[in-house]
Amino acid sequence: MLVAEGLGYEVGGRTLVQGVSLTLKAGEVLALLGPNGAGKTTLLRLLAGEERPSAGRIELLGRALEGYGALELALTRAVLTQQRELSFPFTAYEVAFLGRMPHLQQRPEGPVDHARTEWALGEAQALSLAARLYPTLSGGEQGRVDLARVLAQEPRLLLLDEPTNHLDPKHQVEVLALCRRLAEGGWGVVMVLHELNLASLFADRILLLHQGRMVALGRPAEVLCPKRLEAVYGLPFALAPHPSGRPWVMPLVQSSYPVPSL
Question: pTM score, two decimals?
Answer without folding.
Answer: 0.93
